[in-house]
What does this fold into?
Amino acid sequence: GQQLNQSPQSMFIQEGEDVSMNCTSSSIFNTWLWYKQDPGEGPVLLIALYKAGELTSNGRLTAQFGITRKDSFLNISASIPSDVGIYFCAGHDNTDKLIFGTGTRLQVFP
Amino acid sequence: DTGVSQNPRHKITKRGQNVTFRCDPISEHNRLYWYRQTLGQGPEFLTYFQNEAQLEKSRLLSDRFSAERPKGSFSTLEIQRTEQGDSAMYLCASSYGTRNEKLFFGSGTQLSVL
It folds into this structure.
């Protein structure tokens, strides 16, 4: 099925560092959502974006809806060990289905 | 607990057997979705309901798969004559509204077909 491209595929960082990841699509999306998934669990919603150019924060997380509507970015500041997990972007296409990215696996070392 | 609930959490079955999973959405949510996720991949859309009506099915949903939401509340996903390729995490999500809404996911049912 169709999936969005996320980069990087994985990241290994030191506790306290900032993290940036992005998501791109070949087509326009109407919304961008960011989820975090822990092993054996379902994705948990972090941030939802509804307008091109929108910048939204949730604690140490900040996400932006790209101006072209074909990309989105997620930043995590001052990472902590519980930030470990897989981060997925997702977007609603014109058929109103929520399409998921390929995921960015984040590992945080103390 | 007001979240999306899925049962069972884990299911191990032999090839050729039928399995059924259940999903209870957040109570006021009118839309219910089924996704499948294999190791190292993002969730892939299977089908969704608005109230009791099944509005769309993915090409991934072969004729061995059937989903129902009889009264617009809980939903079941049945896989007949399971194959090893059906092994995956099956995720259910729900949302309120009609378009571009936030989806809230359950913990999933991990299916292993031996």
Q: What stands out?
A: The two ends of chain A are 37 Å apart (CA to CA). The mean pLDDT of chain A is 93.
